Amino acid sequence: MKILTTIYDLNQLKKLSVYADGFLVGNDQFGTRLTKSFSIEEIKEITQEVKTLKKELFLQVNQIFNDDQLDELIQFLHKLPIQDITGIVVADLGAFKTIEKLGFSDKAIYNPETLMTNIYDFNFLAEFNIQGVYVAKEITLDDVMYIAKNKKYKMFMVGHGHLNMFYSKRQLIDNFMQYNEDDHIYHNRQDLKIIEETREEAYPVLEDTAGTHVFRSHVLQSLTQIKTLEPYLDYLVVDTLFKDDAYALSILPMYQNRKPDQLVIDQIQKDYQEIWDEGFFFKKTIYKQKG
Question: Which Pfam families match (predicted)?
């Protein structure tokens, strides 16, 4: 099992590479929920440094695209050294077909967020020479292992971070500010939270180029189950959105060593004022019809 992480500062690549096997980067014209939007030139620089460090690099183009955006995606990919990039993460089948037409289907990783909940859905792109698929975030540990035992390509899973639970392509914060005739200074801010009227929890919220996203209040951690997951997963992703590279440098050694350190965990939770849990590993998602 390899550990991937997101980054904020390309100058931290060398430090992070001590503990991570690879990195996830993107540009906000095509990627969403990014720690930082890197320019084409920065992505080229990152690609070269990752190659020098003998690590892996994954490009996130995980927006839901309109037709005109797919033409722009082609132009974007043509400007990058795709041959040196390990994989391209997509959430849109239109984006996958675009990558396939360019001859890069073996670099495609499909991440539709919540859809891959069973082995039949997980394997449905197997005949297209795809590299891998993200398993859904809302399934149990037993389900993850069952799918892994029957998978036909590489399995990716978000193993640490705030899980996205709501997404709209609308700029909802912008709409709210316009309604109140206030200046909109909150776009791409990573320090915003929303509190529902009927709940006391504060949920991180982000409005980026792709739309508006609301995340779980608690941080998913997989450290307590890391040794169970290791034989099954090909890639476990540490997502540092809403944090920083210092956060990654604190938690990655534990994932690399496959061992939680409670003193370190307590300090991280204190410093970043966060609560960790095991997500849906032991909690099945059940939809109840009202009434």
Answer: Peptidase_U32
- Tell me the whole-structure pTM to 2 decimals: 0.94
Residue by residue, DSSP assigns 212-246 as: EEEE-SSEE--GGGHHHHTTT-SEEEE--TTS-HH
CA distance 226 to 232: 10
Contacts of 85 (CB under 8 A, 6+ apart): 47, 57, 58, 59, 107
Using CA atoms, how far apart are residues 23 and 150, in angstroms rounded to an integer?
Answer: 27
How much is the pLDDT for 199? 80
* Spatial distance between the Cα atoms of 29 and 37, rounded to a whole number of angstroms: 8
- The H or E element that residue 40 is part of is helix 40-52
Domains and CATH numbers, the chain: 2-163+217-277 (3.20.20.70), 164-215 (no CATH)
Report the C-alpha gap between 5 and 60 in whole angstroms: 12
Q: Are 125 and 133 in contact (CB under 8 A)?
A: yes
DSSP string, 249-280: HHHHHHHHHT---HHHHHHHHHHTT--EE-TT
The strand pair at 211-215 and 164-168 is best described as antiparallel
Q: What is the dihedral of CA 32, 35, 38, 42, to 10 degrees?
A: -140
Is residue 210 within 8 Å of residue 169, measured between CB atoms? Answer: yes
pLDDT tens for each residue of 244-259: 999 999 999 999 999 9
Q: Tokens 């499909």 appear where?
A: 110
Token pair 């041959």 is found at 83
Which H, E and C letters describe 55-112, residue by residue? CEEEEEECCCCCHHHHHHHHHHHHCCCHHHCCEEEECCHHHHHHHHHCCCHHHEEECC
